[in-house]
Amino acid sequence: RITRTDPVVAQRQVGLAQGLERRGAAREALGRGSISTEHAAVIVQADRNLPRQVTAVQRDRVEADLLAKAETLSPTALRRAARRALEAVENDVAAVDAHENELVVSEEDRARAKTRLTMHDNGDGTVTGHFTVPSAQGSLLKKIIETITAPRRGRLGASQAQVGEREARTDFDRARGEALVELIEHLPTDHLHPRSAATLVVTVSEEILRGALKAVGLDTGEILSAGEVRRLACNAHLIPAVLGGKSLPLDLGRGSRLFTEAQRIALGLRHSTCAADGCDRPFAWCELHHLHSWALGGRTDLANAVPLCHFHHQRIHDHRYRHTRAPDGSIRFRLVT
Ligand SMILES: [Zn+2]
Ligand SMILES: [Zn+2]
């Protein structure tokens, strides 16, 4: 049945109908409702994928074998099984293996050809993207996102100031979106290209780094709040090109603005997680924040470093929140009233 639908779907349906003309048993099973259209499409495709020398009688046996499997397998699982459909008529395991590998190679080629990333500027401070990647990389991304969203941000019953809005924790699309933002900021972009690191350059006055509340323009045209600029300046992703005011040399005087790898390792011996009270985000994902701001004369030494996860690092640079440090070093946030 072809209804008003998009051409790709329509073409697929025509292909399935044609394929079913030669696969009587599958057509019957579909008519009886004992298999789904997806199952039928897998069986038709498996038949097309069989080597040319497979006889008509053998094809019927392959079909019967897949129909039996379709009773218990999902379409995805059946698709996996169908790559070894030759098994039903071929005793040589090596031949079945080789045929499966051939099918996988062409699947990989097709997946690579379909790979896309498109991004669209919504003009409202957000960008919307759409991507298609091969399943293996898709699964990897899913695992990474799930890992980032998994740990809790605070103790049970912690304040909103400590753990963020309720929606941000219960809306899974939003949680995954925030995890993607975190992932982007944590990519090792400094080695992407030998000369141009994938960093944002901001022209910022000394007053901003010292704490003034003023939005700042980036080299890419976006605007960031003063708090975001100061947070990004704690990481390597943003290079403040300081203009005006008293001179504040970036690479002189108090040495490097960024903590070294050795300092990071040393700090990791003291902290296993984000320093915010009750936050379980592992140290390895944390951003190193200068407790006493570098721009205000804070030193880039261990005593001045505190590991904070992406969320709590944002919070500590958000002028709407204050924080206190407990004797054990854990940090608690409260909303400024
Ligand atoms: Zn910071
Ligand atoms: Zn945290």
TrEMBL record:
Superkingdom to which the source organism belongs: Bacteria
Mind listing the UniProt keywords for this protein, alphabetically? Endonuclease, Hydrolase, Nuclease
The record's listing under InterPro entries reads: DUF222 (IPR003870), HNH_nuc (IPR003615)
Q: Which GO terms describe its molecular function?
A: endonuclease activity
Which residue intervals define the domain HNH nuclease in the entry? 262-314
Q: What is this protein called?
A: HNH endonuclease
Q: Which organism is it from?
A: Nocardioides marmorisolisilvae
